[in-house]
Amino acid sequence: QVQLVQSGAEVKKPGASVKVSCKASGYTFTGYYMHWVRQAPGQGLEWMGWINPNSGGTNYAQKFQGWVTMTRDTSISTAYMELSRLRSDDTAVYYCARDSSSGWSPLGYWGQGTLVTVSS
Amino acid sequence: EIVLTQSPGTLSLSPGERATLSCRASQSVSSSYLAWYQQKPGQAPRLLIYGASSRATGIPDRFSGSGSGTDFTLTISRLEPEDFAVYYCQQYGSSPLAFGQGTKVEIK
User: Fold this and answer.
1) How many angstroms separate the CA of residue A105 from the nearest CA in chain B?
2) Is residue B59 packed enough to be buried (19+ CB in 10 Å), middle (13-18) or exposed (0-12)?
3) Which of A88, B21, B23, B33 could be B72's S-S partner, Cβ–Cβ 3.0 to 4.6 Å?
């Protein structure tokens, strides 16, 4: 069965960076795009971008270009999302989510979420 | 960039009643690449509907989706206690992907 297991909660100071991991199992890691979605407290879902685990190619939402980096390590079936220059309004739960199928596809599998708190 | 607007913001209904949720896109959604998700407190979203009207695996048939172009609807025919949650629409046919702001279905 498909599983996405994310790293634990983080507390960071403003200006710092955070790197969240998402370990995949139960399927061929390189076969499906991995997306990152965040949710601020009490707010809706915000798409951040995706990574193609096969090629390493990325597509970031314009808002996050220049300060998000999505990478992967195919040897351990793990995707990463790094956000730099953190501000208090980056406090949110960050989810990794996998395409249901190849091509244009909804997000059929989700990690459990990682709470990132930015506070001085 | 496609913007999705959901209405109403909150829907107050009783178990057994019918829920109708709306999602309107600022421009036509390519090939009806429109999905609906359910999210309960403290949980990740769960895919309910994709391709505007196809139920995801394991989703009960009281959930149905319809629509095309710019207007889409999620209908829950008879609300069960576990259906009270927040529902999001999402378009995945063009970049950037986008979510609506959500509709909360609460117990009246």
Assistant:
1) 6
2) middle
3) B23
- Residue B54 tokens read as 């196809």
Q: Are B1 and B27 in contact (CB under 8 A)?
A: no
* Cβ <8 Å between A100 and B47: yes
For residue range A75-89, list pLDDT tens digits in order.
Answer: 999 999 999 999 999
Question: What residues of chain A lie within 8 A of the CB of B47, using their CB?
Answer: 100, 106-108
Q: Which two tokens stand for residue B80?
A: 């069960």
Residues of B whose CB is below 8 A from A5: none
Instruction: Please report the DSSP string for B60-73 in residue order.
Output: -TTEEEEEETTEEE
